[in-house]
Each structure stands twice: as C-alpha cells, then as structure tokens.
C-alpha cells in the first residue's frame, strides 16, 4: 500500500505531500501560555456552545458550505462570506465557541453529495443526491426527507454502513481537532472540542452537546459516537465516563430543545417507565450540570399551560408547541411538564424528596444551534437557522415543516441565544469549571450583565459597598446551594445591567419553586425591582407593563422607558425553613423589534398579523437551591 | 448492493484519488492504456488493522471473527469492482468523477500550503504588512462616575460642573449606583468597549489625561471620566502571536496555492471560448 502511495506521489511530482498529510499540526506554534485565574469571576464571558458547520449531516443538507475554521474566525470577529455569498461579521466578537457538529453521520451528506452518481445504486439515495445537486431548495427538500426517514428508522441500509461512517468520522474529527487547537487562544478566545450526540427517539428530541475540558492530546484518543437508535442517554454517559477514566480528562453534556422532546427530556420516571433510581439521578446530575434553555428552535423556560399566572411565560413557544422535533408526533398538553425547564427544576425537588437525589439540579445557558456556521443571536443581525434562511425576502413566511405541513414557519425561529459564563479566566479549564458549578446564565441575545447571590445576612446596605466580593464571601453565586440558615429567610443580591448597546430593562423577577406540605410542586414569580417604581405601582401583586416604544414601520425603539440598571436585595417573604426550594432570576428588557420586523424594513415586506414583530428579550440565571436541614 | 456503495466510498478515498490521478498522469505521459496495477489483491496486516480500528471506533468493541470476515470480504469486493471499473474506463467522461478529481486537485494544491510551516520571515512579513491588525489595544487607567440616564438637563449640569472644576478638585454631582467598576487599572480598550459600549471607548481615545472630562455618553447614560494613564503596548512580537499569524498565513496561503496551481496548469493549455451568438 505504502509503496503505491509513494508511486502515485512521485507521478504527481509532489513528494512533500505524503509527509504533509500525516503531519500533526499541534507541533506548530505549540507555545504554552500561562493564564492566571482571578480570585473570583470579575467579567462575564459570552459564547455559543452549540454551532453546526458543513460537517453536520443536516447543515450540509440545508446548504451550508462553511467549515469549522470559518465558524471560529467568525466568532472571533473576522469577516467571512456566508454560503449564500453575503458578507458576515459579528459587531462584537464572542469570548468562546464550541463547534458541535452532529456525531451521527459526521460528514455524511457532504460525502453523498461528493460521491460519483453512477455508484449510488440505492434509488432513495440517488434521489436525494439529485435533489441536493439541484440547488439550495432541492437540498433542503432532500434534508427534510432524510430527517423524516431517520425519525421513522427507515434510512437506506447503504447510509448506515458503520465502517464507512467511522472512517469518515475519524478523519473529520482529526481535522477539526487541529483547527480548534489552532484557534484556541488561552486568555483571549477559547475554542472547545465538542460534538452533538443527536439522540432522537422516533423524532423526539433528546439531543446533547458534549463538551471537553481538555486539549487534543486527550480528546484525540476518542471519536464522537453515533447515537443512532439508542433510546436513552446511557450510551453517551458510558462514553463520557470511559473517557474520563481512560484519560483523566473531563467532559460534560448539555441537553437542549427539551421543548421538542414530547415530554421525554425531564421525565419523572426512569426512561421507558418505572420509578427513577437514585443511581440514575446521581449520574445525570453529575454529567449534565447545564441545560440549554433558549435557542433558535424556541425557548424552553416556561409554558403558559404550566404557568398560567406568569404573564411572561410562553416566550418563543409559538410553532414549537405543535409537535416533536420532526413533526411526526403531535404534542398534547400532558407532555409539557416533561419539556420545560422551570417544571424540570420543580420535578427535581419532587424526586429529591422521594429518593434523596435531584437529577435536575442543573444550571442554564443559551446558545444558537445555528446551522450556518455563523453564531448570530442579535435580532438585527440574525443569519437564520440554516442556509435556506440566511437573510432573504421569503424567509419570514417560508414553511419550516421538514416536509410535514404541520404549521411551522420561518418567523417561529428565534434569534436566540447566547451563553453567559462567570469564569475566572478565558480558558477551557475556567469556563468548563464555571459550567460545572453552574455559575452561568442564558440570554435570548442581548448581553445583559446579571449577578445573583444568595445568603443569610445580606442587607440593602450591601449594595453600597463592594457587593460582589461580599456575595462570594458571605453567600453563594447562581448555581450554588444554601442550607442551614439560622437567621430567618434567605436574602438575595440581584443585579442586572443592560446590554451597553441594547435596550433598557423593564424589570427583574425572582422565580421560586418549592414542594408544599402536601407534596405538590409549586411556583411563584416575584417582581423584585423594576424601572419607574414611582409610577408603576403593583396592582394585585403584579407590576404593570413597562410600555412600548417600538415603531414597527421602521424597526426601531427608544430607551425613553425602562432603566439602564436594576439592583436590589430581596428577601423571600414566604420562606419556610422546612421546605426545599429553588430561586432563579429572570431579567426582562423593554419591548424591542424582532428579526421579522427588521426583515420587513430591509426587504419591504407586508407581514401577516400573526407574525411576531416585537418581543421582550430576557436573561435567565441558573438557580440557587435551598436545602432544608434534616431534622 | 453494498459492494457498490463500498466502491463509492473507496472512490472518495484520498489514496484512491492519488492512484487515479497517478494513473491518469501515467497515461498522459506514456500514451499507453491505463495500467490499473497488479491483478493481485493483498489484504495485509495493515489493511486488516485499519478495518478493525474503524470497527472499534464505531462500535466501541472489536469485531467478532464473523464480522471481521465480512469486513474483509467487503474490502475485497470493493477492490475488485474498483479496479474493474477503472479497467472498463467507467471513470472517463463522468461529470461527477471529473468534479471529484477537480476537488482533489484543489486539495492537493492546497495541501502543501496546509502542511507547510511558514518561516519566521514570512510571518514577520505578514505582521509588518498590517501591524494594526495584530497590535494589542491601548490600555487605560481611569476613574469614571456614572451620573444617570442621558437627559439634556443632566448634560447641562455636567458641563457646568466641569467648567467650574479647579484642577485637583473632584466632581460633586451625585453619582448613581451602577454595577460597573468606578476605577479601571490598565484595562484594554477592547474590554472597555465591551463593558461600556463603543461610543464610550471612542470618546476615551480623544480624552485628555489627568483631569475630569465629559460628560461622556455610554450605553447606560452619562459619565464623568478622568483618564489617569493611557498606555500603548509595544508593537507585538512575532513570538507572542505566532499562532494567530500562522492561522492567517495558512488560510491565505491555501487560497493562493489553489490560484497559482490553476494559473500554472492553465499555461499548458490553449483555451478557446466560442460563445454562441
């Protein structure tokens, strides 16, 4: 074999080539950089933990041709040319990025597209091949069919050749790994190794993003694993534990789009039924410390069906509450409880009461899940979910049904979200560790700065001094746990600062969940600080709406209402020391135009009345849990 | 059916493309019929190890004996059909094969740049060409006081206060609480822009040092600012930013290599374009 390679190389007259192919690039410029970690997190870091490039089976099928290198250059603030030929540049670079291409069929549609047509004998695959070569629209139709077939466990056998797939995966993974190493710049910009484990039971979304704390030396010993037809996440947990054991490295998984799992993501039972075991709960909580709560395919915080008294529940659920991910199973209201994060936090308390372990004690982040290789979550810069809806006049109203005609349209996509991380340095280790201790929060796009500390002796006066230091010294930050208070109710330092180039803030709320004496999970949303408190007096326990300065005709708004910053020290007025509870913060912006409104101006569109043209963007923090002392 | 897809997979193999490209060039050079190699298929240890490794990657366990036999059978099938297809000339005048070969030629053209390690001189030249791109941002040591939302009356009050301020005096306008640092110590301008907004950062560049100025508008409202020190870090040294330079060098070099390669090849051709009228 080797001899023949040499022969070919000689014939080609590029003898340096062969050596070059096998050369591992991390020897190049391999300078180790020391980055000092701060005593406590001083600056919030913004990133995206969920991004797809041409190596993802569906992203390529949807038309994207950009590589992980393009994705990294874009996230770092470089101008790149999108697949549809538009120049794209982030006005504000991100601090970190995880390229999470689907492990399943890594590089596969690209391989099918590139294959010689005459050798594709499977008629279905040949049809998909032809559709992909027709152009972007045909490509999207082909992708819809492929996803649909995947959901029905009905992919052509030829596509499921494990040997081919493993070979492809290995080579794509190796090449990505080199790129990620090259673009990781400790202290300035962090590029993580990762992939998406696309676990999907009959079209129900049980996806996880897998993120490594380590460099290529350790991560290079494994390859992404394919979840095809696995029914439960155990397989990825086995993989993660085996990796940690073999390498001494660390890895975590982030579930996402629980809103499309048709009730399966946060079950009360063991997957498949039967009571949940403590071992399962412990394992899940350890390996999955963070959940993605908001992204382009909808927002998973709260649903009006579950939270009828929360007037802000139901952000970004339109279109997504119709069915599961693939649209092959309609959704019924009894499924919502297993899908929304607030409910999952409540279920976690219930399960903990039963078996002593809380499987759902997780932090929250946002990320894009963009399939364009471009990480955009700002309404006025939104590049769409996939290449078919990069900016163009039709994307707002285009059906997005994966061929099922089930009523999802382009405007149902959200320009959301980003992950905010309170890390002690901009390094893989520091950001990963912050995720593990859940000191993270989610934004639907705007970069608000949000702090949240819980303790037993915070007083209003604390806000006058160095309250951040006090927060860490006398309390716990978001993601932490409180117990054993002797001085009555816990108090919380809550502080929010608007995005410096964004909209003012409407209000800051604390969402409390608990299990009452009868063993029922309860929730309550408290308005704790809001703008114009002189004029906006609570009515029936609720602060009136902030107002609205959005001019839809021009897609503009004015910061003449709201406040640039809101902060307070809040004490739970209904605290019961015997009752386990969680508290998290929701920060609401004043209303602003949504991306369809910007599109309407850009492309002179007339939108139908159902299209979302304005919205209140928001940030969700990870919770702080109160654990009663056992009596 | 699988033999065909296996053949398709093989045709996607870089090795196979080397072989095909090599064979084609050999044909061009010799004028002889394509020699598709010996009529002997050797499944040696290296091939078997490769098959097993791929299997382990996919299933996280080694194949059973039966499974391994299957893998080998499939490999042999692939080789046979691949060689026979070449012998029959099935690769010729196939648009897709042409396109694949073109992509492979591009990859070969780019591969050298991809694998080449640029010299220090080349990286230095890149740095010298656009020093601003690689320069560390200026660092600021300053004090800031947040006065509140930007209103005409607040603006007027700030201007009045500053004009009456004697050197060394501190402003007395009431400060509003905001979770932003009151003092910054050697903060890079880019971080300040992230925290306060671009307009604020731009204003700093023009601000005098050593005294209170303003009002400076940020995304939050109005501030009074005293720039204590402005440090321009020394121009970056190659050693400190080698990886960034290499990334930029490589991404440009791959593009250039593809262009150069095409231009060089084009020299060997007469291109006649006859557009229909």
UniProtKB/TrEMBL annotation, chain A:
<dbReference type="InterPro" id="IPR022028">
    <property type="entry name" value="DUF3604"/>
</dbReference>
<dbReference type="InterPro" id="IPR016195">
    <property type="entry name" value="Pol/histidinol_Pase-like"/>
</dbReference>
<feature type="signal peptide">
    <location>
        <begin position="1"/>
        <end position="19"/>
    </location>
</feature>
<keyword id="KW-0732">Signal</keyword>
<protein>
    <submittedName>
        <fullName>DUF3604 domain-containing protein</fullName>
    </submittedName>
</protein>
<dbReference type="Pfam" id="PF12228">
    <property type="entry name" value="DUF3604"/>
</dbReference>
Automatic annotation (TrEMBL), chain B:
<keyword id="KW-0413">Isomerase</keyword>
<dbReference type="Pfam" id="PF13145">
    <property type="entry name" value="Rotamase_2"/>
</dbReference>
<protein>
    <recommendedName>
        <fullName>peptidylprolyl isomerase</fullName>
        <ecNumber>5.2.1.8</ecNumber>
    </recommendedName>
</protein>
<comment type="similarity">
    <text>Belongs to the PpiC/parvulin rotamase family.</text>
</comment>
<dbReference type="GO" id="GO:0003755">
    <property type="term" value="F:peptidyl-prolyl cis-trans isomerase activity"/>
</dbReference>
<keyword id="KW-0697">Rotamase</keyword>
<dbReference type="InterPro" id="IPR050245">
    <property type="entry name" value="PrsA_foldase"/>
</dbReference>
<dbReference type="InterPro" id="IPR000297">
    <property type="entry name" value="PPIase_PpiC"/>
</dbReference>
<feature type="domain" description="PpiC">
    <location>
        <begin position="118"/>
        <end position="242"/>
    </location>
</feature>
């Amino acid at each position: 074999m080797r001899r023949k390679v040499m022969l070919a190389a000689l014939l080609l007259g590029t003898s340096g080539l062969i050596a070059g192919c096998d050369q591992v690039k991390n020897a190049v410029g391999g300078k180790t950089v020391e980055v000092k970690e701060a005593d406590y997190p001083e600056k919030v870091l913004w990133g995206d933990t969920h991004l797809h490039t041409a190596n993802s089976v569906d992203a390529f099928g949807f038309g994207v041709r950009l590589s992980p290198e393009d994705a990294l250059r874009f996230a770092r603030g470089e101008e790149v040319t999108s697949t549809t030929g538009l120049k794209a540049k982030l006005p504000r670079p991100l601090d970190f990025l995880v390229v999470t291409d689907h492990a399943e069929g890594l590089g596969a549609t690209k391989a099918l597209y590139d294959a010689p047509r005459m050798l594709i004998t499977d008629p279905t695959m040949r049809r998909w091949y032809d559709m992909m070569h027709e152009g972007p629209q045909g490509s999207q139709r082909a992708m819809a069919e492929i996803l649909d077939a995947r959901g029905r466990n009905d992919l052509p056998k030829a596509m499921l050749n494990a040997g081919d797939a493993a070979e492809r995966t290995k080579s794509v993974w190796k090449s990505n790994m080199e790129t990620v190493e090259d673009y990781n710049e400790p202290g300035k910009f962090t590029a993580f190794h990762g992939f998406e484990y696309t676990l999907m039971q009959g079209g129900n979304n049980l996806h996880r993003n897998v993120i490594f704390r380590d460099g290529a030396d350790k991560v290079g010993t494994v390859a992404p694993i394919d979840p095809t037809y696995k029914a439960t996440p155990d397989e990825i947990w086995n993989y993660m534990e085996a990796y940690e054991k073999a390498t001494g490295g660390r890895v975590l998984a982030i579930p996402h789009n629980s809103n499309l799992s048709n009730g399966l993501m946060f079950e009360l039972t063991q997957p498949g039924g039967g009571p949940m075991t403590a071992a399962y709960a412990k394992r899940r909580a350890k390996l999955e410390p963070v959940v993605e709560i908001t992204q382009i395919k909808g927002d998973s915080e709260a649903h009006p069906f579950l939270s009828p008294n929360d007037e802000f529940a139901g952000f970004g659920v339109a279109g997504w509450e119709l069915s599961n991910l693939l649209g092959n199973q309609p959704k019924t209201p009894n499924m919502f409880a297993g899908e929304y994060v607030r409910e999952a936090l409540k279920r976690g308390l219930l399960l903990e009461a039963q078996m002593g372990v809380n499987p759902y004690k997780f932090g929250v982040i946002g990320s894009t899940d963009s399939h364009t290789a471009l990480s955009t979550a700002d309404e006025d810069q939104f590049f769409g979910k996939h290449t078919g809806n990069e900016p163009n006049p039709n994307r707002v109203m285009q059906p997005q049904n994966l061929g099922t005609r089930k009523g999802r349209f382009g405007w149902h996509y959200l320009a959301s979200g980003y992950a905010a991380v309170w890390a002690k340095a901009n390094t893989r280790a520091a950001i990963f560790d912050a995720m593990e201790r859940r000191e993270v929060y989610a934004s639907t796009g705007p970069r608000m700065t949000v702090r949240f500390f819980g303790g037993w002796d915070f007083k209003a006066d604390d806000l006058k001094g160095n309250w951040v230091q006090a927060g860490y010294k006398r309390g716990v930050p978001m993601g932490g746990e409180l117990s054993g208070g002797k001085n009555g109710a816990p108090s919380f330092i809550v502080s929010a600062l608007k995005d410096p180039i964004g909209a003012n803030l409407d209000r800051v709320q604390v969402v409390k969940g608990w299990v009452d004496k009868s063993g029922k999970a309860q929730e309550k949303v408290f308005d704790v600080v809001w703008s114009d408190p002189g004029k906006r007096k609570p009515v029936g326990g609720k602060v009136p709406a902030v107002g609205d300065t959005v001019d839809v005709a021009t897609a503009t708004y004015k910061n003449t209402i709201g406040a640039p910053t809101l902060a307070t020290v809040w004490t739970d007025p209904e605290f019961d020391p015997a009752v386990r509870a969680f508290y998290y913060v929701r920060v609401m912006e004043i209303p602003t135009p949504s991306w369809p409104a910007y599109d309407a101006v850009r492309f002179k569109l007339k939108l139908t009345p159902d299209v979302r043209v304005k919205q209140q963007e928001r940030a969700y923090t990870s919770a702080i849990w109160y654990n009663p002392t056992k009596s | 059916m699988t033999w065909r897809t296996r053949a398709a997979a093989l045709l996607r193999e870089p090795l196979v493309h080397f072989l095909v490209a090599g064979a084609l060039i050999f044909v061009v050079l010799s004028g002889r019929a394509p020699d598709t190699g010996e009529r002997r298929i050797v499944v040696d240890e290296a091939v078997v190890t490769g098959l097993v490794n791929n299997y382990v990657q996919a299933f996280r366990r080694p194949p059973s004996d039966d499974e391994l036999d299957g893998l080998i059978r499939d490999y042999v099938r692939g080789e046979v059909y691949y060689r026979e297809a070449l012998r029959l000339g099935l690769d010729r005048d196939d648009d897709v094969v042409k396109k694949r070969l073109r992509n492979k030629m591009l990859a070969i053209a780019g591969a050298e740049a991809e694998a080449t390690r640029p010299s220090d001189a080349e990286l230095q030249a890149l740095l010298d060409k656009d020093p601003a791109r690689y320069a560390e941002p200026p660092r600021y040591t300053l004090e800031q006081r947040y006065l509140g939302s930007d209103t005409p009356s607040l603006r007027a009050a700030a201007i009045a206060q500053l004009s009456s301020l004697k050197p060394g005096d501190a402003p007395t306008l009431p400060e509003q609480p905001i979770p932003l640092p009151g003092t910054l110590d050697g903060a890079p301008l880019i971080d300040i822009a992230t925290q306060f907004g671009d307009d604020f950062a731009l204003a700093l560049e023009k601000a005098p040092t050593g005294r209170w100025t303003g009002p400076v508008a940020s995304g939050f409202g109005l501030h009074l600012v005293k720039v204590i020190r402005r440090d321009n870090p020394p121009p970056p040294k190659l050693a400190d930013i080698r990886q960034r330079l290499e990334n930029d060098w490589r991404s440009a070099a791959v593009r250039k290599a593809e262009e150069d390669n095409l231009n060089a090849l084009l020299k060997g051709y007469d291109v006649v374009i006859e557009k229909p009228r």
